[in-house]
Amino acid sequence: MTKENPAGAPPLLPIGVIARRSGVAVSTIHFYESRGLITSVRTEGNQRRYAPVVLRYIAVIKVAQRTGIPLEEIREALRRYPPGSKLSAAQWKTLASEWRDDLDERIKRLTRLRDELNQCIGCGCLSLEDCPLRNPGDSLGSKGPGARILERP
Amino acid sequence: MTKENPAGAPPLLPIGVIARRSGVAVSTIHFYESRGLITSVRTEGNQRRYAPVVLRYIAVIKVAQRTGIPLEEIREALRRYPPGSKLSAAQWKTLASEWRDDLDERIKRLTRLRDELNQCIGCGCLSLEDCPLRNPGDSLGSKGPGARILERP
DNA sequence: TATTGACCTCAAGTTAAGTTGAGGTTTTAT
DNA sequence: ATAAAACCTCAACTTAACTTGAGGTCAATA
């Protein structure tokens, strides 16, 4: 029986260990925590201790990011389950399916764009009226300042 | 014969007209010019006047952006031709082909990712050792601060 | 002629996703 | 008991691609 830990529960990990094992920087973990993506408890000395499951959380976050989901949305998705909960296989399946659909949509858009581009390489007009490339149709929501996220309108 | 214009050349346009016809904000045109993507001449009164071809330039820029090419690269690509030059059909073909290939590569990466995700939805392990999702293989170049461009490693 | 609308410059703000650094506290190893 | 390694907080910086705003000039119109 360890001291800071009720019987049976796996031991809590300090941030350095999480960083090493997950492959992300300590500062990133701080950042994720500040954004509510992961949680920790504190020692008497105010140092963070993480349940091992956060390694899984970080893995999930990274995968979601690779598919192009912004952190904010990832947080919302994770929020659906109690913070720091076990994140079961079923839950992962749900999340991953949503993200896959999202990714699929993105791929479709890009593929359509590529086809249009191919067409247009033949014609070369870029005419405002005729060219499909010039009439995005959907995806015309570029408002406000800030970095433009490439493809995800 | 107009005054500011040698015989035969099409008349130069003020920035407001370019903005209206191209669909981008005046501030954006300023910005593109400051980044060397387009050029203008000035009137005696220091106002910008654009050759009509910049409408085409802006069109090209927008298309390239849609395919995910960053402005910096777009500028480099355009730099290969004399600034403000006619941008012939052949030149457009060359640029567009490059960008299409780039886009193609991106699509392939995303497709691979989607397939891996599909696999992983079945297994749900996210194991550091086994899971293909956890071993990006390529694309591990995330260094330094600044916005992470989603997909384009 | 006077106004209004279009322009100009330059500095500063915005977003996302983090990083860097200063100044100070805790833990761990010797 | 120290010293070194690991942590902590908080503010400021970074990139990309723009936007906003202040303070001032130019040009077309009534």
SSE topology:
2 copies of one chain form a homodimer.
Chain A: E1 13-14, H1 15-22, H2 26-34, E2 41-42, E3 48-50, H3 53-66, H4 71-79, H5 89-123
Antiparallel strand pairs in A: 1-3, 2-3
The structure holds a DNA duplex (30 and 30 nucleotides).
Largest interface comes to: A-B, 41 and 41 residues
Spatial extent as radius of gyration of chain A: 22 Å
Share of residues in strands of chain A: under 5%
The helix count of chain A comes to 5
Give the CA-based shape of chain A.
elongated
End-to-end distance of chain A: 52 Å
Strand order of the largest sheet of chain A: 1-3-2
Q: Strand pairing plus helix content of chain A: what structural class?
A: mainly alpha
Tell me how many strands of chain A there are: 3
Please provide the ordered H/E string of secondary-structure elements of chain A: EHHEEHHH
CATH class of chain A: Mainly Alpha
Helix content of chain A: 40-55%
Return the average pLDDT of chain A rounded to an integer: 83
Assembly classification = homodimer
| Biggest β-sheet description of chain A | 3 strands, antiparallel
Structure description:
The model of chain A is unreliable at 137-141 (pLDDT under 50). Chain A has helices spanning 15-22, 26-34, 53-66, 71-79, 89-123; strands at 13-14, 41-42, 48-50. The first copy, chain A, has one domain (13-124): Multidrug-efflux Transporter Regulator, Chain: A, Domain 2 (Orthogonal Bundle). The radius of gyration of chain A is 22 Å and the shape is elongated. In chain A, strand 2 (41-42) and strand 3 form a beta hairpin. In chain A, 49% of the residues lie in helices and 5% in strands. Chain A contains five helices and three strands; from the N terminus they run βααββααα. The A-B interface holds A 21, 56, 59-60, 63, 65-68, 70, 89, 92-93, 96-97, 99-100, 103-104, 106-107, 110-111, 113-114, 117-118, 120-121, 124, 126, 128, 133-134, 136, 147-152 and B 21, 56, 59-60, 63, 65-68, 70, 89, 92-93, 96-97, 99-100, 103-104, 106-107, 110-111, 113-114, 117-118, 120-121, 124, 126, 128, 133-134, 136, 147-152. Chain A binds a DNA duplex (30 and 30 nucleotides) through residues 14-16, 25-28, 30-31, 35, 43-48, 65, 70-72, 142, 144-149.
